[in-house]
């Protein structure tokens, strides 16, 4: 069965960086892009970007351009999201999800499997 | 970016009720609209993709409709496990965006 298992909670100081991992299993890792979504406490969902697990192409949310880097390691079927210059408003649960292009002949991008989430707390 | 607006923001209902949640896009998004369910402390779960396609394993009491700018999620007969927050999301543009969420509470 498809699973995405994320790394554990992190506490960081303002200005630091954090790197969250997302290990995939149960499917051919290079065949699907991985997307990242975050959720601040008590707030809604914010899309951060995606990375192709096939060729490493990325598409980042404009708001995070210059502070976020997404990478993959196909040898371990793991995706990574690094966020730099952390601020207090980066405190959130960070989710990875599998980005699927087609299901049952319907080719419209959607996110079908999600990781369990990683809480990143930014506090001095 | 395409703005997604859900209504209502919160809703109280009883087990067995029929419930409808609406999502409106700031521009036409064809059928590039998906619905997710999130319970407290858990990751979102895909319910409906491409406006009306039921994700595998999701109960048939969930249904979606719409195209263009206006979409609905309907739960035909609420079950206790359906009390959660629901989000719509568009993938028409390369900057994917979510609605602000609709919290469904027990009356």
Order of helices and strands of chain B: EEEEEEEEEEE
Which percent range fits the helix content of chain A? under 10%
SSE run of chain A: EEEEEEEEEEE
Largest sheet of chain A: 7 strands, mixed
Our measurement of the CA-to-CA distance between the termini of chain A, rounded to an integer number of angstroms, reads 40 Å
The backbone outline of chain A, from C-alpha atoms, is: globular
Low-confidence stretches of chain B: none
Termini separation of chain B: 36 Å
Give an account of the 3D structure.
The complex is a heterodimer of chains A (124) and B (107). Chain A has 124 residues and is mainly beta. Chain A has strands at 3-6, 10-12, 18-25, 33-39, 45-51, 58-60, 68-73, 78-83, 92-100, 110-114, 118-122. In chain A, the strands form two sheets. In chain A, strands 2, 4, 5, 6, 9, 10 and 11 form a seven-stranded mixed beta sheet that branches. In chain A, strand 4 (33-39) and strand 5 form a beta hairpin. Chain A is globular and about 50 Å long. Chain B has 107 residues and is an all-beta fold. Chain B has strands at 4-7, 10-13, 19-25, 33-38, 45-49, 53-54, 62-67, 70-75, 85-90, 97-98, 102-106. In chain B, strands 2, 4, 5, 6, 9, 10 and 11 form a seven-stranded mixed beta sheet that branches. In chain B, a hairpin with a 3-residue loop joins strand 5 and strand 6. The model of chain B has no long low-confidence stretch (mean pLDDT 97).
